[in-house]
């Protein structure tokens, strides 16, 4: 393996692509030739285990991706670097849904809410933490007994469902997370989760196989470990790319330059 080539694994969701683009620009500035492999959550970790990728960007630990990382760690020693942002899963409603009626998940069972709330809850792919959590919530909160159902799909299935509902001022629940570009444009009120099924606030980190750390100098590892972006930055850049059509690598390079990280 050439010492100036790095292959990074990217979970193929918009905000993960943003973080990976930021890391890619940092690595390119170090002189690396960077190849990105895009895959769903489980495959991303499998690729890391099999050595198809050297590093994985923005693993959500410990809640969302902890189980995947633990399985890889049994076979391949890993080390975490940096803190890209602090993500967490949530169920939310548009801000025009009255807060005095819907402030926590059990409120979805109120008769007055049942009359107006869309029962079909549209999520993203089944391997995502929010999807696993949401499926459990339908059962644990007994939402299914009142007609609620959770459905997996693509990112755009989830986001367009929300945007269309807001356009028509319809009541709905969106299974989401922070950071995500919808938060940049819309005010989404998070519902309290008394049972605690949505997991904790995670740390999104860069995961490097220990047997690939030699590709980096000690100084480069320090740079990677010092990377800090934050939820608002990721959401803002995500919106520029996903809804304003800007070029992802140009957007992230501009941010790095303006913030003296590159």
Please give a quick description of this structure.
This protein is an alpha/beta fold and 262 residues long. It has ten helices and ten strands.
Provide a descriptive summary of the structure in words.
The chain has 262 residues and is of the alpha/beta class. Helices cover 37% and strands 22% of the residues. The protein has a five-stranded mixed beta sheet, sandwiched between helices. Strands 8-5-9 form a three-stranded antiparallel beta sheet. It is globular.
Q: Report the CATH superfamily of the largest domain.
A: Periplasmic binding protein-like II
Tell the overall outline: globular
Q: How do the SSEs run, as a string of H and E?
A: EHEHEHEEHEHEHEHEEHHH
Instruction: Please count the helical segments.
Output: 10
Global structural class = alpha/beta
Rg value: 19 Å
- Which stretches are low in confidence, meaning pLDDT under 50 for 5 or more residues running? none
- Quaternary organisation of the protein chains: single chain
CATH topology of the largest domain: D-Maltodextrin-Binding Protein, domain 2
Quote the average pLDDT. Answer: 94
Please report which band the strand proportion falls in: under 5%, 5-15%, 15-25%, 25-35%, 35-45% or over 45%: 15-25%
CATH class of the largest domain: Alpha Beta
* Major β-sheet annotation: 5 strands, mixed
The CATH architecture of the largest domain would be 3-Layer(aba) Sandwich
End-to-end separation: 26 Å
**Tally of DSSP β-strands:** 10
What is the domain tally?
2
Helix content: 25-40%
Biggest sheet strand order reads 2-1-3-10-4
């Amino acid at each position: 393996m050439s010492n100036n080539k790095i292959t990074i694994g990217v979970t193929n969701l918009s905000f993960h692509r943003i973080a990976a683009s930021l890391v890619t620009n940092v690595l390119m500035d170090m002189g690396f030739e960077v190849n990105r492999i895009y895959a769903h959550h489980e495959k991303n970790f499998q690729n890391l285990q099999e050595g198809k990728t050297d590093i994985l960007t923005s693993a959500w630990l410990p809640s969302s991706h902890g189980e995947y990382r633990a399985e890889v760690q049994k076979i391949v020693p890993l080390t975490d670097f940096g803190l890209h942002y602090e993500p967490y899963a949530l169920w939310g409603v548009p801000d025009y849904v009255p807060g005095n009626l819907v402030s926590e998940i059990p409120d979805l069972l109120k008769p007055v809410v049942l009359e107006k709330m869309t029962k079909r809850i549209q999520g993203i792919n089944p391997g995502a933490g929010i999807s696993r959590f949401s499926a459990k919530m339908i059962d644990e909160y007994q939402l299914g007994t009142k007609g609620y159902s959770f459905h997996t799909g693509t990112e755009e299935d989830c986001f367009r469902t929300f945007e269309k509902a807001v356009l028509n001022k319809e009541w709905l629940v969106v299974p989401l997370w922070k950071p995500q570009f919808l938060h940049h444009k819309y005010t989404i009120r998070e519902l309290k989760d008394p049972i605690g099924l949505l997991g904790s606030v995670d740390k999104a980190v860069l995961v490097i196989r220990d047997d690939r750390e030699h590709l980096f100098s000690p100084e480069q590892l320090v740079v990677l470990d010092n990377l800090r972006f934050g939820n608002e930055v990721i959401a803002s850049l995500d919106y520029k790319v996903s809804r304003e059509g800007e070029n992802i690598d140009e957007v992230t390079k501009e941010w790095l330059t303006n913030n003296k990280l590159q």
